[in-house]
Amino acid sequence: MSKIALITGATAGIGEACAHVFAREGYNLVLTGRRLERLEKLAKHLNDKYNVEVAISSFDVRNREDTISNLEALPEKWKKVTVLVNNAGLSQGLDPIQKGNIDDWETMIDTNIKGLLYVSRVVSNWMIANGKGHIINLGSIAGKEVYANGNVYCATKHAVDALNKGMRIDLLPHGIKVTAIHPGAVETEFSEVRFKGDKERAKKVYEGFEPLAAVDVAETIWFIASRPAHVNINDMLIMPTAQANAGTIFRG
Ligand code: NDP
Ligand code: 8X3
User: Does the global pTM surpass 0.85?
Assistant: First the structure.
């Protein structure tokens, strides 16, 4: 198999949209996430629609042993990953630092930083062995700016920004491209997860303007992945037209 994309967090939102776009472009896929039934349904749909092969692997990226052993258990042919989309991530809560829920902090740090590191540690070695690859990290506008009550989520995405730069330096001699994409507001399950299932509060985040859709980000990730071999997009900010920066959204 010549073209394989491994997408973490493919059960919803941006990751799921990336799975559709990469399948449409003829990529075979390794899809991961915790919700196995969603992975199974998506794999069948993409196989039927695009005639691509899809492997699924269900694990929690916070669990170091599970993450490493599930990835290493993939059959050898799947380890020829050409594109890794490090997408699995989340926000929990939106509270001032002095009132923050410490469990939420640990969930965000363990998922957005440590989970991304565990996956990258395994897959970067596959790419080195294959002599090529492209790692695309999901940062955020929250990795470029800090907004009120965003404290720990913003810190995790600033860490992704730093890791993205570090990975690019370390993997340079191996010919591996490293890119970060930093979206503004994208309407996915993100806010429902942030507000722990409060759909009304989540809906309000996107009221009065047109946010990005997951597919807008996925198509841009495809643009990044489909540049010629000598071209790398290091870093990209992508915003809804109605959003100027983290804290300024024009709600008409
Ligand atoms: P969604 O909530 O829609 O999707 C998040 C995905 O991450 C799901 O597939 C989920 O799968 C997976 N995930 C979360 N926690 C874990 C875990 N512990 N182990 C494995 N998989 C996990 O959100 P988005 O699509 O919006 O978010 C995707 C990425 O984009 C995140 O990194 C987010 O921070 C970033 N982002 C989002 C923006 C937005 O406005 N929506 C803007 C900027 C960046 P499952 O629950 O099945 O495990
Ligand atoms: C998600 C976008 O502005 O909620 O990363 O942090 S924001």
Answer: yes
The residue-averaged pLDDT of 148-168 equals: 99
Would the pLDDT of 58 be above 80?
yes
Q: What is the CATH number of the domain that holds 49?
A: 3.40.50.720
Answer whether residue 1 shows pLDDT above 80. no
141 CA distance to ligand 2 middle (Å): 6
| Residue 153 appears among annotated catalytic residues | yes
> How many CB atoms are located within 10 Å of the residue 63 CB?
16
- Which structural domain, as residue segments, surrounds residue 9? 4-249
> Annotated catalytic residue: which of 27, 118, 153, 206?
153
CA dihedral (35, 41, 46, 51) in degrees, to 10, reads: 120
In ligand 1, the atom with minimum distance to the C-alpha of 61 is: 19
Round the average pLDDT of the chain to a whole number and report it: 98
How many domains does the chain divide into? 1
